[in-house]
UniProtKB/TrEMBL annotation, chain A:
Catalytic activity: 5-[(5-phospho-1-deoxy-D-ribulos-1-ylimino)methylamino]-1-(5-phospho-beta-D-ribosyl)imidazole-4-carboxamide + L-glutamine = D-erythro-1-(imidazol-4-yl)glycerol 3-phosphate + 5-amino-1-(5-phospho-beta-D-ribosyl)imidazole-4-carboxamide + L-glutamate + H(+); L-glutamine + H2O = L-glutamate + NH4(+)
Residues in Glutamine amidotransferase domain copies: 6-198
Encoding gene, per UniProt annotation: hisH
Pathway named in the protein's UniProt entry: Amino-acid biosynthesis; L-histidine biosynthesis; L-histidine from 5-phospho-alpha-D-ribose 1-diphosphate: step 5/9
Protein name as annotated: Imidazole glycerol phosphate synthase subunit HisH
UniProt function note: IGPS catalyzes the conversion of PRFAR and glutamine to IGP, AICAR and glutamate. The HisH subunit catalyzes the hydrolysis of glutamine to glutamate and ammonia as part of the synthesis of IGP and AICAR. The resulting ammonia molecule is channeled to the active site of HisF.
GO molecular function terms listed in the Swiss-Prot or TrEMBL record: glutaminase activity; imidazoleglycerol-phosphate synthase activity; lyase activity
Keyword Transferase applies: yes
Subunit note: Heterodimer of HisH and HisF.
Lineage per the UniProt record: Bacteria, Pseudomonadati, Pseudomonadota, Betaproteobacteria, Nitrosomonadales
UniProtKB/TrEMBL annotation, chain B:
Summary of subunit composition and partner proteins: Heterodimer of HisH and HisF.
Gene name of the encoded protein: hisF
EC number(s) given by UniProt: 4.3.2.10
Sorted UniProt keywords: Amino-acid biosynthesis, Cytoplasm, Histidine biosynthesis, Lyase
CC per GO annotation: cytoplasm
Family, as annotated: Belongs to the HisA/HisF family.
InterPro entries: Aldolase_TIM, His_biosynth, HisF, IGPS_HisA/HisF, RibuloseP-bd_barrel
One BP annotation, GO: L-histidine biosynthetic process
Protein name in UniProt: Imidazole glycerol phosphate synthase subunit HisF
Location relative to the cell: Cytoplasm
Catalyses which reaction(s): 5-[(5-phospho-1-deoxy-D-ribulos-1-ylimino)methylamino]-1-(5-phospho-beta-D-ribosyl)imidazole-4-carboxamide + L-glutamine = D-erythro-1-(imidazol-4-yl)glycerol 3-phosphate + 5-amino-1-(5-phospho-beta-D-ribosyl)imidazole-4-carboxamide + L-glutamate + H(+)
Job description of the protein: IGPS catalyzes the conversion of PRFAR and glutamine to IGP, AICAR and glutamate. The HisF subunit catalyzes the cyclization activity that produces IGP and AICAR from PRFAR using the ammonia provided by the HisH subunit.
Species name: Nitrosomonas communis
Length: 216, 258
C-alpha cells in the first residue's frame, strides 16, 4: 500500500518533493502518481504545484484528479505546497480561474504599488528567496521548527483568507500575508519545504508522522 | 525583518568536474560537483548554480546525472544552465531535479524559447543569464552595456538594459547578470551595471562576475541593488566559507539567512 501519494498533474518538477519525502521517511512507500485510484488508496496525500493557476486547474481536471484531490482534502492527512495551497481557495486573480473552493478566500497578485519596504527600496516580484515564517498557531507540523525560521519562497500570488482562524503562519512582503493554513486534516504552505533545507525537511518529517484527529 | 539577500556559489562544470576560468578562458580544476554542492549546502548556501560549460556534445548528459545526484542529497534550490537550446532541454533538466533553468545564448538566438518555457513550466523556473560588457556608444559618445553570447565571444548589438526588460516581458522569472569585464578579475562587481539593470526591472537580479573579497558582496547588494550575489573562486579555494560571507553581510546590516 502507498503511504504517501505525491499528486502529479503535469505541472513541473515533483522530483524534489518526492526526494525530500524519501529523505525524511526512508521506510515509507512514496509514489508520484497521476492515477486517481492510487491517490484514493494512499494514507497521506501531497499536492505540490508550480506554474500558473489556470494551467494547474485545467491539468488537474484533465487528468481526472480533481475529485481524488477533493476527497483527500476531506479525510486524510493532506499537504498542499505552493499552487497546492492556492488551489484550495475559491478563486484566483491569475487568469480569473475558480479554485477547488475547499476554503473560503481568494488568491491575489502582489500589488506593484505597495512593493516598497520601510527603507523605501523597491521589492521585486516574484517574491523569491528565504523569508521568515511567523507561526500563529500551535500545530504538529511546526514541531521542532523555530518561530520565524526562514523558508524558501517563489511566487507572485498569495492567498487572502476569509477566516483568519485557519492561518497557521504569516510572512511579511512588505505587509503580512498568509503563508500557511491549517484546518482539520489539511495543512498547506506557500513556501517550498522541499527546498528549505533543515526547516523544510523537519516540516515534511512532521507531516509523515501527523495524526490529524489525535492532536492538531 | 523580511526577505533575505541570497548568497549563491556558482559551479562551472566541464566534463563532470568543477572548474574556474579567468575572463571566460583558462580553466583550473576545483573538484567534484556533488562533493562541493554538499559542502556549500552545509555551510548555508541559499541556492546553487551549475553552469555546464562542457563543449563536447558527448559529455552533455553528464550534467543530468550530476543534477540528479545533487538533488537527492541537497534540499535547496538548484539552478542549472549551459547549452539549453529548446524547451525539451528545460524539461530534461527539471526532471533531473533542477528547480530553475538558465538560458543565455539561446534566448538571444530565439527569444520565443523564454516565452515558451515560461508558459509551459512557469516563470519561477526560467532564469535568463545576461553576459554584458561595457562598450562605447559612438552615436552618443557615452558608455553603455552590450549583451554578449557564446561565453562572451560574440557581440549581439543588444543593449543589456533593454534586453533585461524584454526578457521580463517574455516571462523570465529572474536575471543572472554577469559583467564580462569583471568576471574572474576579483576586482568586484560592475556596480553601475548591476544597479542600472536591477532598478530597470521588477525581477530579482543575481549579480555575478568579479568577486574577490567579502566587501564586494556587500557592495553588490547595497550599491548594486542586487537581490542575490553569486561568487565562485572565493568559495572554491577556501578563501571564505559561505557562513563567513553571511556573517559579514549581517554585520553590514544586510538581512541574511543565518
Amino acid at each position: 500500500m502507498t503511504d504517501i501519494a505525491v499528486v502529479d498533474y503535469g505541472m513541473g518538477n515533483l522530483r524534489s518533493v518526492s526526494k525530500a519525502l524519501e529523505h525524511v521517511a526512508p521506510t515509507a512507500s512514496i509514489v508520484v502518481t497521476s492515477d486517481p485510484s492510487v491517490v484514493q488508496k494512499a494514507s497521506r496525500v501531497v499536492v505540490p504545484g508550480q506554474g500558473a493557476m489556470p494551467n494547474c486547474m485545467r491539468e488537474l481536471t484533465g487528468h481526472g484528479l480533481k475529485d481524488a484531490v477533493l476527497e483527500a482534502a476531506k479525510n486524510k492527512p493532506f499537504l498542499g505546497i505552493c499552487l497546492g495551497l492556492q488551489m484550495l481557495f475559491d478563486e484566483s486573480e491569475e487568469g480569473n480561474v475558480k479554485g477547488l473552493g475547499v476554503l473560503p478566500g481568494k488568491v491575489r497578485h502582489f500589488s506593484h504599488d505597495a512593493m516598497i519596504n520601510s527603507e523605501r527600496n523597491k521589492l521585486k516580484v516574484p517574491h523569491m528567496g528565504w523569508n521568515q515564517v511567523h507561526q500563529t498557531m500551535q500545530h504538529s507540523l511546526w514541531n521542532g521548527i523555530a518561530n520565524d525560521a526562514r523558508f524558501y519562497f517563489v511566487h507572485s500570488y498569495y492567498v487572502e483568507t476569509v477566516n483568519s482562524e485557519i492561518t497557521a503562519a504569516y510572512t511579511l512582503y512588505p505587509t503580512p500575508f498568509t503563508c500557511a493554513i491549517a484546518k482539520d486534516n489539511i495543512f498547506a504552505v506557500q513556501f517550498h519545504p522541499e527546498k528549505s533545507q533543515i526547516a523544510g525537511l523537519t516540516l515534511l518529517h512532521n507531516f509523515t508522522k501527523w495524526e490529524p484527529h489525535s492532536s492538531r | 525583518m523580511g526577505l533575505a539577500k541570497r548568497i549563491i556559489p556558482c559551479l562551472d562544470v566541464n566534463n563532470g568536474r568543477v572548474v574556474k576560468g579567468v575572463n571566460f578562458i583558462s580553466l583550473r580544476d576545483a573538484g567534484d560537483p556533488v562533493e562541493i554542492a554538499r559542502r556549500y549546502d552545509e555551510q548555508g548556501a541559499d541556492e546553487l548554480v551549475f553552469l555546464d560549460i562542457t563543449a563536447s556534445s558527448d559529455n552533455r548528459d553528464l550534467i543530468l546525472h550530476i543534477v540528479e545526484e545533487v538533488a537527492a542529497q541537497v534540499f535547496i534550490p538548484l539552478t542549472v544552465g549551459g547549452g539549453v537550446r529548446k524547451v525539451d532541454d528545460v524539461r530534461r533538466l527539471l526532471n533531473a531535479g533542477a528547480d530553475k533553468v538558465s538560458v543565455n545564448t539561446s534566448a538571444v538566438l530565439n527569444p520565443q524559447l523564454v516565452a515558451d518555457a515560461a508558459s509551459h513550466y512557469g516563470s519561477q523556473c526560467i532564469v535568463v543569464a545576461i553576459d554584458a560588457k561595457q562598450v562605447m556608444d559612438d552615436k552618443h559618445n557615452s558608455p553603455r552595456w552590450e549583451v554578449f553570447t557564446h561565453g562572451g565571444r560574440n557581440a549581439t548589438g543588444l543593449d543589456a538594459i533593454e534586453w533585461a526588460k524584454k526578457m521580463q516581458t517574455l516571462g523570465a522569472g529572474e536575471i543572472l547578470l554577469t559583467s564580462m569585464d569583471r568576471d574572474g578579475t576579483r576586482h568586484g562587481f560592475d556596480l553601475a551595471l548591476t544597479h542600472a539593470i536591477s532598478d530597470a526591472i521588477d525581477l530579482p537580479v543575481i549579480a555575478s562576475g568579479g568577486v574577490g573579497c567579502l566587501d564586494h558582496l556587500v557592495e553588490g547588494i547595497l550599491q548594486g541593488h542586487a537581490d542575490a550575489v553569486l561568487a565562485a573562486s572565493i568559495f572554491h579555494y577556501g578563501q571564505h566559507t559561505i557562513q563567513e560571507a553571511k556573517q559579514y553581510l549581517a554585520k553590514h546590516g544586510i538581512e541574511v539567512r543565518l
